[in-house]
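ugh ok fine here u go
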Amino acid sequence: MTEWKEYNKLEIPGKMLIPGFSIYLLQINYLNEVYFYIGMTGDPFYPSARAAFHRISGHLELSDISTQNQLMASLRDRNLYESNLDDISITMHHFPINGFEKWTLTSGMKPVEIKEHIKSKDYKNYKKRQAEVENLECVLIYNLKEKIGDKLLNKTNGKKGKFSYEFIHLVMELNEIISANLIKININE
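structure:
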């Protein structure tokens, strides 16, 4: 390997390029601090689900008028963006959730075809699954805000509630990741 001082490498697993429902945890390390951000793919405002990599790229959008760059906005709010990017690393923990089927629209999403698809049984199943994933995201945000406070960068407060038992292993894994990283940071202080 070359000794080029400015060399970096980003490797993206193919699974992070596949559209689908998922929950992700962004872990932001800055010097001896660690922050987290919980999100989902399969946003309820769009009739599809983005790939995880597409979603994180939206979070890092630089435009001030973007509606998808909540992470960037949080970094700016904490003055971590402009002068400290060299000291930041971001890890995306990605948890795909089954139940997403890509739309088979032929017209390139023309309003007439979308209107017809929205009436279908497939779309109703899609919206049901989307609501389950959104509920999980909201409950995770609420519980993490309670546990780690301002270490969670989400602007929304989530909602108190329960999630489906099928997600128990995902939740356990998230807890392990967060606990391990908060402990590592505390040891370094």
